[in-house]
Inverse folding.
């Protein structure tokens, strides 16, 4: 009898968790990803704001799985799934198109930005999902200060020193706080014609408060911390236009050379590949064991899946959800292949959520206790470093943070990539 | 009386040394560079071979000079010099063209690759001068292993596992050694269809020995160390053709998907800007005080200058030469502006040259003593780390090296940038 072949698409938190939990099991596993590394997305905003280097928050997928002899890794882009013939179509890294057959399929393809139908905004208001997004945003931010330094008119200087962050979720809050700190702390003595501390950072949120997933008290604490850093928080403000000159908030024109999008995410194309039922964010509706009702051999996890919490609400798009789902699906698969009884329906054990704002400012919501300030900030650092993959990355990131904290400098202020000569 | 204005073009080793030696002097200094960072070029090959991250070998120019109140920094590209009106023309970072007047001009614009008139080779055989070159070469090397893993035929697999490095100078030797180590050590357990240790690394040198600037004994030691690592060293071999399929060495076809150019450098455009006399590598002929005979207010240093050693031979394009020349020009300028006697002609104090090959293999030539092996390798590490700019960079690079040495892993194996999805 040949062994069952499990194909996992995507090596984010969900896919990687499924793969590591299947390592050593009596199955063959193939992990397919468009990139050769697993990215620790929660720290990506620190790459975008020149605090960390890409390699500090990314590890090669092959290196993570190199001891798992039953797992192979393919670098390639999945373009479709044929769920009748049970194959996925992969555009190879550089080679010809290939078809890979599966017995079981786990789709963990994550999410991308959503511009709510205004895709033309992407060019002027980039979002933050990939490493190249982050180095691109870093280039924009640092170049804006350089251009302001060289500007001939006060008006142009003001435009290049105005940074607009759209969306008051964790990404938006963290980006706004980090840009304000970069300007006020790390860049403070670097220029001669401008004072970087005059930089204006505007955080725009359409809803009535920041961090809607947190308790109202912590939303308010986050707002106060941001304002202490000099960030202008605009609540209940809807962006009606984005272009090279800036944004329109309602009917107000805000001139800005640097706009960052942290507002919306949409699931990847998995629902389209499967022809499956999806929610309005494009996430595939899955059953209590995270498989498709119509195709029990196909599972969706993480940001790809619309799964329900015990309270009947859909689970949020968080790393711990994806990781627990990956581990759960591995358990379901092992049971099913071994002919054992199926485990109980998936149940998410949430420990809480956190967001950081700046030096000694963060919020943490554990349900039973809600904290902010220095303690939340220390906890945030501890948790994020302890989840970073790779022993070396942890040490290096901790040293970098310590160094930044002590010297008020930030480590990776490089303008690289296209257009930087 | 207004203060003299000194314009320094280029913030490499030479320009930065001139600027730091003019910090605090009774002059105004403007440093112009196309990039916002100073790059520690001797370690760039480690970025190209996934050992280090860009930010570990680059520091923002503004941060280095932030305490020098009489020095300002401009991010921009110099396109020409008007030596009659004493101005340089700068294409601003993102702004309109500007003209900047100088009393004294220091050109430290470095060198770029030379393809000996075969510029069409650049696309298939990239050279290594900039950070984007290095991350591009890293992408090519890592993608070649990925493609070999996915290849359908033995022939194609062989082509993607063949790496050709052209030029047996320090860059070529270091690249060939580092690629061989990456394949044999760090990637060893990462693949399922290929054995990375079967990778073929060919180092092609037209001359009769490697590292022509070193003693013949060390050239031979380098060759032996490389061969022990599995590198094929081809001496007296001339590349007659480079294309997407590989190279021609004389009349022999060598199929390879990854070609790296380390053969030739040529000075930047400074000689053309000045309409000055130049040598066949494009370096400006300067007098004993490094100024132009026809324009004593213009100085050229580093790879931009053809200056003579005490033995009448031109000085080599090394970091210590550029640094000493920068410091010397600062001294000449201060003396001249203060009306003091000119210092003695420039005299280069060379301590020696080094090149590294791999784990515990390097060569060091100090003239009076020539060493190779583990001792040379330790010395090489010590010297390179001690010259790295920034306290943090030193610690982080040392930790990274230590970690790689102990674990046999390398730290920055990311495929990023255009074409990596």
């Amino acid at each position: 009898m040949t062994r069952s072949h499990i194909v996992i698409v995507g090596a984010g938190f969900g896919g990687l968790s499924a793969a590591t939990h299947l390592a050593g099991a009596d199955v063959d596993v193939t992990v397919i990803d468009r990139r050769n590394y697993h990215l620790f997305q929660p720290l990506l905003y620190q790459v975008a704001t020149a605090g960390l280097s890409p390699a500090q928050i990314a590890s090669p997928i092959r290196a993570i799985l190199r001891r798992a002899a039953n797992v192979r890794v393919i670098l390639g882009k999945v373009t479709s799934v044929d769920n009748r013939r049970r194959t996925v179509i992969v555009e190879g890294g550089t080679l010809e198109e290939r078809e890979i057959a599966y017995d079981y399929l786990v789709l963990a393809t994550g999410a991308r930005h959503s511009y709510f139908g205004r895709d033309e905004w992407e060019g002027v208001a980039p979002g933050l999902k990939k490493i190249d997004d982050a180095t691109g945003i870093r280039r924009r931010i640092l170049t804006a200060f350089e251009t302001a330094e060289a500007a001939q008119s006060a008006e142009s200087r003001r435009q290049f020193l105005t940074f607009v962050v759209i969306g008051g979720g964790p990404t938006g809050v963290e980006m706004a706080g980090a840009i304000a700190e970069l300007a006020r702390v790390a860049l403070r003595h670097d220029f001669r014609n401008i004072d970087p501390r005059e930089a204006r950072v505007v955080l725009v949120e359409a809803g009535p408060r920041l961090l809607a997933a947190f308790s109202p008290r912590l939303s308010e604490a986050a707002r106060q911390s941001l304002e202490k850093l000099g960030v202008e928080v605009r609540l209940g403000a809807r962006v009606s236009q984005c272009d090279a000159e800036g944004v329109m908030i309602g009917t107000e024109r805000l001139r800005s050379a640097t706009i960052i999008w942290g507002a919306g995410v949409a699931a990847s194309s998995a629902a389209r590949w499967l022809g499956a039922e999806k929610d309005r964010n494009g996430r595939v509706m899955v059953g209590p064991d995270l498989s498709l009702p119509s195709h029990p051999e196909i599972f969706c996890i993480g940001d790809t899946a619309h799964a329900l919490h015990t309270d009947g609400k859909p689970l949020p798009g968080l790393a711990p959800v994806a990781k627990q789902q990956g581990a759960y699906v591995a358990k379901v698969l092992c049971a099913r292949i071994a002919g054992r009884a199926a485990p109980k329906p998936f149940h998410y054990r949430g420990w809480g959520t956190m967001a950081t704002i700046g030096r000694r400012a963060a919020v943490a919501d554990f349900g039973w206790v809600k904290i902010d300030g220095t303690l939340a900030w220390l906890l945030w650092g501890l948790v994020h470093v302890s989840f970073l993959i790779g022993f070396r990355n942890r040490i290096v990131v901790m040293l970098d943070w310590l160094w930044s904290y002590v010297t008020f400098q930030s480590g990776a202020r490089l303008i690289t990539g296209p257009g930087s000569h």
